[in-house]
Amino acid sequence: MTENDISTLLVTLADPTRRKALALLHERGELCVCELMTMLGATQSRMSRHMAALKSIGLVIDRRDAQWVRYRRAPKLAKEAARIVELVLAATKSRSTTVTPRKASRGEPRRGLSS
């Protein structure tokens, strides 16, 4: 993977809806857009755009099933990409179950990447 590939991957994974969709595909296998919409509370057009972004960088593949488009995780990712995805999803999962996000109050500094 080039530095540009890594940057594109990280930018794509920066979106919470995309991370959640990818995590669902990792957990459940194949899902159609309508199922992802319901699970993530997204509109059809928004979900389709997110899935197109994941597909464009090779993280998911799709197949047509009558009027439905079904997505699943790409079976052959570059080793580096697979590791990055694995780490990002693991970090997101552990953070989402242990930390409740909150806004900094007035006068309180915002936290950076450190805990």
What would you note in describing this structure?
With 115 residues, the protein is of the alpha+beta class. It has a single domain, classed as Winged helix-like DNA-binding domain superfamily/Winged helix DNA-binding domain (Arc Repressor Mutant, subunit A). The protein has a three-stranded antiparallel beta sheet. Helix 1 runs parallel beside helix 5 and helix 2 crosses helix 4. The longest helix has 20 residues. The radius of gyration is 16 Å and the shape is globular. The two termini are 30 Å apart. The C terminus is likely disordered.
Kindly report the name of the CATH homologous superfamily: Winged helix-like DNA-binding domain superfamily/Winged helix DNA-binding domain
Q: In angstroms, what separates the terminal alpha carbons?
A: 30 Å
Report the mean per-residue pLDDT as an integer. 84
For the secondary structure, the number of strands is: 3
Regarding quaternary structure, what we see is single chain
**Strand neighbour order, sheet with most strands:** 1-3-2
Shape: globular
- Which architecture would the CATH scheme give at its second level? Orthogonal Bundle
Q: What structural category arises from helix and sheet content?
A: alpha+beta
CATH class: Mainly Alpha
The share of residues in helices is 55-70%
- Beta content: 5-15%
How can the largest sheet be summarized?
A: 3 strands, antiparallel
Low-pLDDT segments: 97-105, 108-115
Quick rundown:
With 115 residues, the chain is α+β, with helices and mostly antiparallel strands.
